[in-house]
Design goal:
Blueprint (H helix, E strand, L loop, with lengths): L1 E4 L12 H10 L18 H29 L2 E4 L3 H4 L5 E8 L13 H13 L7 E7 L4 E2 L8 H9 L10 H12 L6 E8 L11 H13 L4 E7 L11 E4 L3 E2 L3 E3 L4 E10 L4 E10 L2 E2 L5 E6 L2 E9 L5 E8 L10 E9 L2 E7 L12 H7 L9 E7 L5 H4 L4 E5 L6 H12 L4 E5 L6 H7 L9 E8 L39 E7 L21 E5 L5 E7 L4 E5 L16 H13 L6 E3 L4 E5 L8 E4 L9 E5 L2 E6 L6 E7 L10 E6 L12 H11 L1 E4 L2 H9 L4 E3 L1 H24 L7 H8 L2
Parallel strand pairs: 3-4, 3-6, 6-7, 7-34, 10-17, 18-19, 18-20, 20-21, 21-26, 27-33
Antiparallel strand pairs: 1-2, 2-35, 4-5, 8-11, 9-11, 11-15, 12-13, 12-14, 12-16, 16-17, 22-23, 24-25, 25-26, 28-31, 29-32, 30-31, 32-33
C-alpha cells in the first residue's frame, strides 16, 4: 500500500488547527467575584457543569478537525492498494503515446508500414479510454515533437492530428521522447499516468549504449509524485533478418556550396549494401531540381555489408539555388534511397580588395597580383567580380553588396570600420581574408580585430625572417598540413605548386583562449564562435593560414603577404586556383543551405520584406513558421523548426511584388538509422529491470496488465464529505449550547460560587 499527497505544501494548513485554541484562550474573560446573598439560588449542579464542559471541549475538537480536513483535502491525498482503493476508485487516466517517427518505421516489407500500424494502434486503444481520460501524442524524432499542445479530452481532435502525422524520416531518440512525456505528465491531474511507446524492433532508437540519457529518464521518474507506468511494443511484426535487403545513399558532399555559372562542381557520396547476396550491381541516378539526368547514370558494384564511393560532376547554366540528388531504385526501406544537397549559383562573386599600399604604379600595389588572379582582363565572363578600394573608402554601405573582403596589408582600421567588418561577418554571413605585411599596426589590430569579440582571437607576436637559401634553409608549406578539403588539391609535390613557394617573412601568431559561454547560454542554444583552426603550416612549424567560423561568416588569416614582397607565391601557377578556392570557401559561409536537424535556417531577404510576402514550406509541402529580423544591413529570414529532414522551400507568395528569389534548403539526418539490428534480449532486460519498462505484444495483453493493476485513488472527496457532516454536527452543538443559555464558567468563578 502506497500513500502520498499531490500537493504536500498544502499540509502547512494543518497549522491552522491551533486557531480555535488560540481564539478560545483569547476570548476568556477575567471576572471580579462579588458576594451577594441570592447567589446560592443561581448555582449550577455539578453534573450540569461537567456536561457543559464536555460539550465545550467537543465543540473545540470539531472545529479543529474541520480545519484539518480542509488542509488534508487541499493536499489531495492518494492511496495505491489497500482496503480503501477497493471501495473508492477512479478510472480517469492520463496517457501519452510516443510514436517512433524515424525512417526505419517506413519499412515496406509487410502489408502496412510500422508507422501506419502505430497510428492504427493508437486509434484502437483510444476506444478503450473514458471521457475523463486525457491523451497526448509525441512524434519521436531526433528531438521529440509534441503533436498535441497539451493533454486533452478532445479525442476527435487527437484522431485528426494522428491522421496528419508527417511520414517517417530521419532518426529518433526514444529516451529523449520519454523524458518529454514525463514532463508533459507533470502538468496533469489524474492519478493513473501511462506512457505507451510504439516503435519497431530496432535497437538504435533506444540508444542502449548511452546510460546518461536513461539516467535522466530515471531521475524524472523518481521526481514524479505519482507513479508513471512505461509500456512499449513492437508494431513492425517479425522481420526475417537474414533475408532483408537494403541499399543506402550516404550524405552528399559538394565541392562548393556557392559557385558560379559553368564552373564544375563535384558531388560525392557512398552507397552501402546489406542483404543476402554476396555482391550487388545497382544503378545510381543523378538529379538536379528533381529532374533525372539520364546520361549521368552510373552502375556500381558493392559487396555485402560494404560501401562504394561514387562521384558526379555538373556545371550549372542558370543562377539561383539548385538541389542536387543521388537516387537509388526503391527498396523496402525507401527513407535512405536518396540524398540531397543545396547549392547556390551566381553569375560572379563580388569581392572587395582593400589595398594597404596604394600606388600610382598599379604593379606596386598590394593587390595587383590578386586582382589579376581573380579577374583576368581577357576573361569576358569572370567567375569573380573584384572592386579595389583604399582603406578610407571601407564603409558598411559598400559591404552590403560584397561576398568576400580581402584586407591586403592594411595598416589599421577605425573603430567604426572594424565594427562594420565584424557585423559583415556575423550578420551578413560574409567572408574576410586578412593578409599581413610590413604595414600592420599591431596595437590597433589587437584592439579592434584580434580579440574574442572581433574577427579572430589571436596574438600577433613578432615579424620573422627566413635565414635564406645560403644557409640551406628553405621555408615552404608543409604538404601534410593541408588537410582541409578545399586545400587538399594543392598537396602535390611539384616544382610550380603551392607547396614549392618560398616564404621569406611572416608574422608569428598564437591563438588566444576561447571566450567562455555566458551563464545563460549553451552550445545547443546558439551557434557561437569557434576557435581558429590552423589549416596550413610552414616547414618551421609556424602557422601560415588560420580559418575561423563565426555565427554566419568565415575569416581566413594569412600570416604572410598576398603580393611578392614576402614570398614568391604569386609566381606559382597554383596562385590563381588557390585564391579562387579561398574566395569560394569564404563565400560559402553566407548562407548555410545544408544543415542538420534542429539547426536554424537563416537567409538574407530583400530589405523591408514582410513575412506575409513569403511562403515557407517543409519537406511535406506543409506551411512552416518563420520570422523576419530587420537590421541596419537588411532583413533576415529565420526558422528554427527543422525537426523534419528533407528539402525546405522559401518562395515569394503569388500576387506580391518582391525582389525575393526562390530558395531551397536541405536538412540532413543520421544515416545510421538504416541499421535494422533488433533490440537484443539482454538490452530489453536492462530496460525492463533498471528503467521499469514493460514490453507487451498485443493490445489485449496491455489492457489486461494496465486495467487490472491496483489503481491509485484520490480520496479528497471523502474528506470533504466528512467535513460537511462535521459542519452539521458543529452547527447542531453550537445551537444546543446557545439555546440552553449556558456557557462554560471560568474555573475561578466556579470555585467562588462554591464558597457562597
Amino acid at each position: 500500500m502506497t500513500f502520498d499527497f499531490l500537493n504536500p505544501m498544502m499540509l502547512l494548513g494543518l497549522l491552522g488547527i491551533a486557531l480555535p485554541i488560540l481564539v478560545h484562550l483569547l476570548s476568556r474573560k477575567r471576572y471580579d467575584v462579588v458576594q451577594w446573598g441570592a447567589m446560592q439560588f443561581l448555582q449550577l449542579g455539578r453534573r450540569t457543569r461537567r456536561k457543559i464542559r464536555l460539550e465545550g471541549w467537543l465543540l473545540l475538537a470539531i472545529r479543529m478537525l474541520l480545519i484539518a480536513l480542509i488542509a488534508l483535502a487541499l493536499a489531495r491525498p492518494w492511496v495505491s492498494g489497500g482496503f480503501l482503493s477497493k471501495y473508492i476508485s477512479t478510472q480517469s487516466r492520463d496517457v501519452v503515446f510516443i510514436i517512433d517517427g524515424s525512417y526505419s518505421m517506413g519499412w515496406e516489407g509487410e502489408a502496412t508500414t510500422p508507422h501506419s500500424a502505430a497510428i492504427q494502434w493508437v486509434h484502437r486503444f483510444m476506444e478503450e479510454l473514458n471521457p475523463g481520460d486525457t491523451v497526448s501524442i509525441i512524434d519521436a524524432r531526433n528531438q521529440p515533437r509534441l503533436v498535441t499542445e497539451s493533454p486533452t479530452h478532445q479525442f476527435a481532435a487527437v484522431r485528426e492530428k494522428l491522421n496528419h502525422l508527417p511520414p517517417p524520416s530521419g532518426a529518433s531518440n526514444l529516451a529523449n521522447s520519454i523524458s518529454k512525456a514525463i514532463q508533459t505528465l507533470s502538468t496533469t491531474t489524474n492519478l493513473e499516468r501511462e506512457i505507451i511507446i510504439l516503435t519497431d524492433d530496432q535497437a538504435l532508437c533506444w540508444t542502449p549504449e548511452d546510460p546518461i540519457l536513461w539516467e535522466q529518464v530515471q531521475d524524472l521518474l523518481q521526481q514524479s509524485a505519482i507513479p508513471i507506468d512505461l509500456w512499449a511494443t513492437n508494431v513492425s511484426g517479425e522481420r526475417n533478418q537474414g533475408l532483408q535487403s537494403n541499399l543506402r545513399v550516404g550524405q552528399l558532399a559538394v565541392s562548393r556550396e556557392v559557385c558560379v555559372k559553368n564552373l564544375p562542381v563535384k558531388i560525392s557520396t557512398t552507397i552501402r549494401y546489406d542483404g543476402p547476396e554476396p555482391t550487388l550491381i545497382c544503378p545510381v541516378y543523378f538529379e538536379v531540381n528533381g529532374q533525372r539526368i539520364k546520361e549521368k547514370t552510373q552502375s556500381v558494384k558493392i559487396e555485402n555489408h560494404g560501401e562504394a564511393a561514387i562521384e558526379f560532376q555538373h556545371r550549372f547554366e542558370n543562377e539561383g539555388t539548385h538541389v542536387v540528388s543521388v537516387v537509388l531504385d526503391s527498396d523496402q526501406l525507401p527513407g535512405d534511397d536518396r540524398s540531397d544537397a543545396a547549392l547556390h549559383v551566381t553569375s560572379a562573386l563580388p569581392v572587395l580588395l582593400v589595398d594597404g599600399t596604394p600606388n600610382f604604379d598599379a604593379t606596386r600595389s598590394e593587390v595587383f597580383f590578386a586582382n589579376l588572379a581573380l579577374m583576368a582582363p581577357t576573361n569576358r565572363t569572370p567567375w569573380i567580380q573584384t572592386t579595389i578600394i583604399e582603406k578610407e573608402q571601407l564603409t558598411s554601405e559598400i559591404l552590403k553588396n560584397q561576398a568576400v573582403v580581402i584586407l591586403a596589408n592594411v595598416d589599421a582600421l577605425t573603430e567604426v570600420q572594424a565594427g562594420a567588418l565584424i557585423d559583415f561577418v556575423n550578420h551578413q554571413g560574409g567572408g574576410v581574408m586578412i593578409t599581413l605585411g610590413d604595414q600592420i599596426d599591431v596595437e590597433q589590430y589587437q584592439k579592434l580585430l584580434f580579440h574574442p569579440e572581433g574577427l579572430i582571437p589571436l596574438k600577433l607576436k613578432t615579424r620573422e625572417t627566413s635565414s635564406g637559401v645560403e644557409f640551406g634553409n628553405l621555408t615552404q608549406i608543409k604538404s601534410n598540413s593541408l588537410q582541409t578539403p578545399w586545400l587538399t588539391r594543392f598537396r602535390g609535390e611539384y616544382a610550380n605548386g603551392l607547396t614549392s613557394a618560398r616564404y621569406n617573412q611572416w608574422w608569428d601568431v598564437s591563438i588566444a583562449n576561447k571566450k567562455p559561454l555566458p551563464d545563460d547560454k549553451t552550445e545547443s542554444e546558439t551557434k557561437l564562435q569557434t576557435a581558429p583552426i590552423e589549416i596550413a603550416q610552414l616547414s618551421n612549424d609556424k602557422p601560415l593560414m588560420l580559418l575561423m567560423n563565426h555565427q554566419r561568416g568565415r575569416v581566413l588569416l594569412m600570416t604572410s603577404s598576398l603580393d611578392a614582397d614576402w614570398n614568391n607565391l604569386p609566381a606559382k601557377p597554383d596562385y590563381v586556383p588557390f585564391l579562387h578556392e579561398a574566395v569560394f570557401e569564404l563565400s560559402s559561409g553566407r548562407v548555410f543551405r545544408n544543415i542538420n536537424t534542429d539547426e536554424p535556417i537563416v537567409v538574407g531577404v530583400p530589405a523591408k520584406t514582410t513575412i506575409d510576402e513569403l511562403e515557407f514550406l517543409d519537406p511535406n509541402s506543409e506551411p512552416a513558421t518563420g520570422t523576419i529580423d530587420e537590421s541596419t544591413n537588411g532583413s533576415t529570414f529565420h526558422c528554427s523548426q527543422t525537426s523534419l529532414p528533407g528539402i525546405y522551400a522559401l518562395n515569394p507568395k503569388p500576387g506580391f511584388k518582391t525582389e525575393l528569389k526562390p530558395d531551397r534548403f536541405v536538412v540532413n539526418f543520421d544515416r545510421s538509422e538504416s541499421n535494422l539490428t533488433p533490440l537484443s534480449e539482454e538490452q530489453q532486460k536492462t530496460l525492463t529491470d533498471e528503467y521499469k519498462l514493460t514490453f507487451f505484444k498485443t493490445l489485449d495483453e496491455l489492457k489486461q496488465a494496465m486495467f487490472s493493476d491496483v489503481s491509485e485513488t484520490e480520496f479528497w472527496r471523502v474528506l470533504l464529505l466528512f467535513f460537511l457532516l462535521l459542519m452539521i454536527g458543529e452547527l447542531f452543538l453550537t445551537r444546543r449550547l446557545v439555546q440552553g443559555g449556558h456557557s462554560a464558567l471560568p474555573d475561578g468563578l466556579e470555585q467562588s460560587n462554591n464558597t457562597l
